[in-house]
Structures are given as C-alpha cells and as structure tokens.
Amino acid sequence: MAVWKLPLVIGVEIAVFILTSYCIDELLITTHLLKIMHYKLTYQNSLQSLYRGIYFMGFSTGYYFILRYNNERRKTNELEKQRLIDIIYRQKSEQELTIAQNAYLKAQINPHFLFNTLDFVYHNIVALSPNTADAVIMLAEMMRYAIDSDKMGEFIPLGEEIDQVENLIYLNQMRKNYELGIQFHYEEDVRNIYLIPLVLLTLVENIFKHGNLTDKGQDAVIQVYLKNETFYIETDNVIDQKMRSAGNHKGLNNTEQRLKFAYGENILFDYSSTESSHFKVLLSIPLKQLKYPGETLKPLIDNGK
C-alpha cells in the first residue's frame, strides 16, 4: 500500500466507525433498548466515538503489525535457512568435485605405472612360465578395459565385455587349479548388442566374491540370451556362507541405478537369496530400448528372437 493512502484509509475508518456507532445508538433508541428521549450527532458525541474508535483501531492496528512482523520474520528465517542449505550443498558439491578430481589425477598416474609393471613382469616370465605370462596379459587387458570403459562411449558392444568375462573366469580358474564350478553360456547374437559398460562384468565379479564355487554339483551359471524381443542376463550361484554378512549389495545397487538412468524404469533388475542358499540375479531389457548403431539389432527383432 502506498504511504499517501494510509491517512485517507484511517480517516475513512474513523468516519465509518462514528457513523456506525450513531446508527447503532439510533437503533437501540428506536427499539427502546436504550432509554434516551432524543439523541443527536453532536460534536461531543463525535469526540467520544472518535476516542473509542482510536482506542479500538490502535489495538487492531497493533495486532495487524504484530502478525505482519511475525509473518515477515518467518519468511526471513525460511530464506536464511534456505540460504544456509544452499551454502552447505554448494560446499558439499565442491568437496565431492575435489575428491573426484583427485581420484581422476590418481587414475591418470596409477594405470601408467601398473601397465608398465605388468609389461615388465610379462617379459621376465614368458620364457619360464608361458601360462603365467598369458595370465598377466589377460589381467592387463581386463584392467585396461575397466579403466578405459568411461572413454569408450556411453554404450559399447557387449562382445568386448564378454571377452573380459572369459578372461576373468580363466584367471580365477587358473588361480584355483581349475577346480571352480562355473558355467558361462551366451548366444552369439548378443555380442552385437550395445550395452552400458561393466554390467555383466560386475555380476560375474559378484559371483567370485560372494559365491561358493567349490560345491560339487552346484555350479554357478551365467546366461546371456535373447527371447521374445527382450535381452536377458541371468546368474545363479550358491552363497558362500563365510561371505553372507560381508556384502551390502552396493555394487548391484549402483548397477541398478546406472541401468535405470540409461534405460528408464521399463527394465527389470532383480536379485535375491533363495531358501536353498542360492543367489540369483535377473536383468531384462526390451530390445527396442537398447542403444545400437545402424541396423545391428533390426534382424534380431524382425526374427522375433
């Protein structure tokens, strides 16, 4: 409200109050509720009404300003609270950015040293132990794939990751004298599918980390296939009871978030433990939601696989 309007509003309020008081008094006299023979709107009566009007208006105005003050104070406190929240969020973001930058710098240094070391080890043992030298090469390939996965693009051919899964299985079998019970089955067509990286590799690593692969007759099974225009990954393994309380499925939770970020909510990613102490994972993605170059998947969809 403009400042110049305030006196006008106050004057109108006072005039209305005086006239209202006069009308009420006249009504009371007319109805004989107030026993006065004659009542006139005199200067003295007006002053009395003015006094009462100012009295009540003072209280009401004070009450109004108290409410307005409290309201403004509440808004100010909310703005200040929001400002502090924004400051805390910005500081947290800057801290996380610093941590990420430091991790990135370390990642630039450590892989270079790692690959040079593995190359040195390979050339020193290849003549003495060809099998061990091959294992070093496979390990180097896996490490390079994992480190360079963020540079390959958002989606990569699944065939590249299948190769690394086979390397991972071979290395673990070699380490355990080829006594691990694990089966890896995939259809050749799935190699051409483009998927976000490190999904299949994470699921297989989870089997080696938390699974019991020495239980005879209960091999861990990994299946990658196409069915009814849908892409599937299934894993099934016996749970290692010594590792049952060690994991909190953080890797699987991260994988699920990455999948939903890339493909939306119209996918299925389910993992659970069974009464028979098995751990099962099921991933299904409609083929139409998968990213692929050109017409790579069109024949697969047309054939109804």
Automatic annotation (TrEMBL):
Example of a GO cellular component annotation carried by this entry: membrane
Residues spanning the membrane: 6-29, 50-67
Transport is among the record's keywords: no
Gene Ontology MF, one: phosphorelay sensor kinase activity
InterPro entries given in the database record: Bact_2-comp_sensor_kinase, Sig_transdc_His_kin_internal
Keywords, in A-Z order: Kinase, Membrane, Transferase, Transmembrane, Transmembrane helix
Limits of the Signal transduction histidine kinase internal region domain: 101-177
The protein's name in its UniProt record: Histidine kinase
